[in-house]
Amino acid sequence: xxxxxxxxxxxxxxxxxxxxxxxxxxxxxLDNLQSGSRNNLFDGVAFFECDICDRDAVxxxxxxxxxxxxxxxxxxxxxxxxxxxxxxxxxxxxLGTINLLEAAxxxxxxxxxxxxxxxxxxxxxxxxSRAGIxxxxxxxxxxxIGKLAAETYVRYFxxxxxxxxxxxxxxxxxxxxxSSHAEAGVVAIFLAKIRKGEPLTIYARKHPGxxxxxxxxxxxxxxxxxxxxxxEGRISAPVLNVATGLxxxxxxxxxxxxxxxxxxxxxxxxxxxxxxxxxxxxxxxGFQQLFGTAVTLREGLRNTLLF
Length: 307
Ligand SMILES: NC(=O)c1ccc[n+]([C@@H]2O[C@H](COP(=O)([O-])OP(=O)(O)OC[C@H]3O[C@@H](n4cnc5c(N)ncnc54)[C@H](O)[C@@H]3O)[C@@H](O)[C@H]2O)c1
Fold this sequence. Notes:
By secondary structure, this protein is of the alpha/beta class.
């Protein structure tokens, strides 16, 4: 089995590469190192330093490696950045995805996995509810819109071109190696700030002083499990939420982390940010039926602290 992991120098992609290498799968990484790092690459894994927007280079890499499966994680992964420059976001996340789909078909790849976002694609859902895959997505950020457009192309390639696909909609992923420079990784950002003794900022859900947005925090090991299940053909549904089904406010997250550290840290309450979904909890039942109970937040944060 040969697996090409795009975005394999990034946070989630590198965990997936590590797990696949452990299973003796032949792996290659395609990444332009925009937000990823050479330090996340593993010995013995082929590396194509390539921009997914460069169609010819993408075709050449896929033709050269001849993967059985492509798992597509390369992306502009920041909601804030997508608001700042939605054209660049769409170029990478929509047009780059089309390049990979076309290259996968040309190379007769047997399965294509797409890393999508449950956190940003469903938009705001009513408090107390959970977004299931049957819910019509209503993204409120350019990042969510781009991911939905890319998903629609993935479905087109499945239905009209005959490419077997899995779309994995991740909740908010956290774990070791997540960059604290990325806008999205609040767990990594808070950890870095606690270590440096700096205050933690709680961006408002509605008004400064509230507990902040509600998110479904899923540990990266569950995301890796879902990918491996899909690579092995164990996920029959074309779309799967990868989630815990539990909501946590930014304030509760900050409290969990400061308690685990045993260190009182100042909390600063700021305005709501543009593009931030207020309440995002996914229905993770499909994932848990296939892979068992998701890692709890307490267990996952403890694991993240160890690294
Ligand atoms: N982290 C989360 O909470 C989360 C949630 C939902 C979905 N996702 C999706 O999962 C995937 C991985 O996310 P992550 O958190 O590991 O982000 P990341 O930023 O750590 O990884 C993205 C990788 O893509 C690479 N990349 C960016 N633009 C590229 C381009 N034009 N050409 C080639 N490579 C490029 C980066 O260098 C990086 O290595 C992304 O598709 C993201 O949208 C992440």
